[in-house]
Each structure stands twice: as C-alpha cells, then as structure tokens.
Design brief:
Helix content: 25-40%
CATH topology of the largest domain: Ribosomal Protein S5, domain 2
Number of domains: 2
GO molecular function: ATP binding; kinase activity
Order of helices and strands: EEHEHHHEEEHHHHEEHEEEH
Number of strands: 11
Shape: globular
InterPro entries: GHMP_kinase_C_dom (IPR013750), GHMP_kinase_N_dom (IPR006204), RFAP_synthase (IPR004422), Ribosomal_Su5_D2-typ_SF (IPR020568), Ribsml_uS5_D2-typ_fold_subgr (IPR014721)
CATH architecture of the largest domain: 2-Layer Sandwich
Structural class: alpha+beta
Strand content: 15-25%
Keywords: Kinase, Transferase
Distance between the termini: 17 Å
C-alpha cells in the first residue's frame, strides 16, 4: 500500500463516469472453468458525477439525492477507508461528497459500479493515491460477474471481458475498440419499471437451469467471427444481426426470471414495431428494463424515434416509455481538478 499523503488542499476534485450497456454474456455454462464473460459499451446518455472539496469549500449537491442513495454513498466511503484507505489518519479523512448527477438505478445502465468507481477514484485522488480501477472495484465489491463497467470506466468504447476464472479478482478485459462515431443507439427506458436486482438477482442466478453448452459456443462464435469484425469494419447490418441472435439466446435463458425475452412488456411491443420497420440490432441491457436499437446515423435514429412516438401516441400502454438517442463514449471516465480535465484512458496504467 502506498504511503498516504496530505489531501489536495483548496481544490475541488470532480470525477465523472459514463453509463454502460451490458449486451450479453459469453459463457453462462462455465464448462471450461471461467464463468460469465461480458459484451458491452459506454454510452453518453447518462453519467455519474461527484466532487469533493477542502473543508472550506462549498458542500451542496446539485440534485435531489434519495436517502437510499445517500446511504450507499456513505457505505462506499466507509468501505474505502476500511480497505484501500485504512492507513490514512482519521484527521485527514474527508467523507462528504457533492452529487452532481447520477445514472438511474436498476435500469440496466451500471449505476452501482459507476457510483463505486467514481467514489473510489475521487477519494484516491483526494489523498493523492494512484490506485488502479480494478483494485478499487475489488475493494468496493464490484465486478462479481461483469467487468464491462470497470473497463468502460478506464477506456470507454466497446468492450469484451473473459469473466472470472478460479483466481480472477475481477473480470479480465480481452478486447476494447472505439465505437463508430456516426452510429447511434435509440434507447428505450421504462419509467414505471425496474430491472431485477439485489437478492432477487442472486436467487435468479442460483435457480435458473444450467445454460446449454451449445448456446455458449454459439455466442462465442458469433462474437469472435461476426460481432467484432462487423464493429471494426463498421458493418451495422452484420453487427445488429449478431447482437440480436446473442440477445435471443440470453433472453430465452433469463425469461423465467424476468417474465419474457424483455423485462418491460411495453418496450417489447415497441421493439417488435422497430423490427417490422426493418431494424435488426436490438438489445436489452443487463436485466433491463432499458433496451436499445442500433442505427447507422443520427438521421436514422431520429427517424426511428419519430416512428416509435407515432405508435406510442396511439396506445395508452406505451405512454411511460422514454425515448432518446445516444452515442458511444470512446474515452474513459474524467477527473477534473481546478478546471483541468483528464480522462482515465490517458492516465491509468494496467
């Protein structure tokens, strides 16, 4: 452990981490000794941004923060000082942070991991400690299955990880590639629904049947020989086709726990309409309810949003769905100290 030094004096430190989409697991069967393995990317639709200042700085959050979230923040701060910051003297610890924005909870956007990593890096930088993001994730109990949020915090872009082996503290990143700048995602968010989380999520993983080996093999084949080459060659049709097939195999497995291929029935109706319009790259992120449709441009995304809104206007069941377009984020989380901003892919070390 590094020797802690005095906190940064008379400066305000901001750390901001992007939302992420989790598009599927590589291997839920685990027959080769590794489990999970994930596919996903960073998106600019939402972000978590917190700051910390010297005691004479302003201590006021920009947004209303639910009591449950305040409790999570307090717990994460305490966990940091019990682990990575255990050698920092009590009189040097500043445990009050300002909240400027938060990724929606239990929407499939990785809010829990980003909150933990933002707090961990915020405190590490405040105490001038150079701690790698995977180490922070492990100390704050993140990365138990997916490593997408950890990797996108460091590098942004489109990421594939190898999941967890017998001696893996966090998932191992296999692949990172910039997401095409012209591609857009039409995101569908259900304001009246939350994805499975907490104890219910743990029980689902424990009680679902064994994932068929041939399905894991098919997903790995699709990822290596279609999804990733299509991403690199910027072929939206092949990319979308691979995403949709992977999602079908994953969604069928989780259907008994989440009530169908998709968690939100109104979103499922809108995705079926998008499919009828000729779109084929559709995905639910994690347990949802957030879903997305991949498009090749902002114009195509705007066109799809207009078509979906026309359908929503005719059906009262669809009134609580929020539509927005998003782009990929091709850089890691940012740290700003006194107006000087850096991104983690420029400063982290493996």
């Amino acid at each position: 452990m590094q020797q802690p030094v005095l906190p940064v004096q008379h400066q305000t430190i901001f750390v901001q981490g992007p939302a992420r989409l989790h598009l599927g697991f590589l291997d839920l069967n685990g027959g080769l000794g590794r489990h999970f393995g994930s596919i996903g990317l960073a998106v600019n639709s939402h972000h978590t941004k917190l700051s910390i200042a010297d005691l004479d700085g302003l201590q006021q959050s920009d947004i209303s923060v639910p009591e449950s979230t305040k409790n999570k923040i307090t717990k994460l701060i305490n966990q940091f000082y019990l682990t990575l910051g255990k050698d920092i003297p009590e009189d040097l610890r500043r445990t009050k942070v300002n909240v400027h924005s938060l990724i929606p909870e239990h929407a499939g956007l990785g809010s829990g991991t980003q909150l933990a990593l933002v707090i961990g890096q915020l405190l590490a930088n405040y105490h001038q400690l150079d701690i790698p993001t995977p180490t922070i994730a492990q100390a704050l109990d993140r990365g138990k299955r997916s490593g997408i949020g950890i990797s996108t915090f460091d590098t942004g872009g489109f990421v594939v990880d190898a999941g967890l082996g017998p001696h893996s503290p966090t998932p191992v990143r296999l692949f990172q590639q910039a997401f095409p700048s012209q591609w857009r995602l039409v995101m569908l968010m259900d304001k009246n629904h939350q994805g499975i989380h907490g104890q219910t999520e743990i029980q689902a993983f424990q009680t679902l049947p064994e994932f068929p080996l041939q399905h894991s093999q098919r997903i790995c084949h699709l990822t290596l020989m279609q999804l990733l080459p299509a991403l690199i060659e910027q072929d939206i049709d092949l990319f979308g086709s691979a995403v949709s097939e992977i999602q079908t195999l994953i969604g069928q497995h989780f259907a008994p726990a989440q009530g169908g291929q998709y968690t939100s029935k109104p979103i499922a109706m809108l995705l079926e309409h998008a499919k009828s319009l000729g779109f084929n790259g559709m995905a639910q992120s994690s347990w949802g309810p957030t879903c997305c449709v991949f498009t090749n441009s902002q114009d195509q995304a705007d066109q799809l949003i207009a078509e979906l809104r026309s359908k929503m206007d005719l059906d009262p069941q669809l009134q609580n769905i929020e539509l927005l377009s998003a782009a990929g984020v091709n850089q890691g989380a940012s740290i700003t100290i006194d107006s000087q901003t850096k991104h983690f892919n420029n400063i982290v070390r493996d």
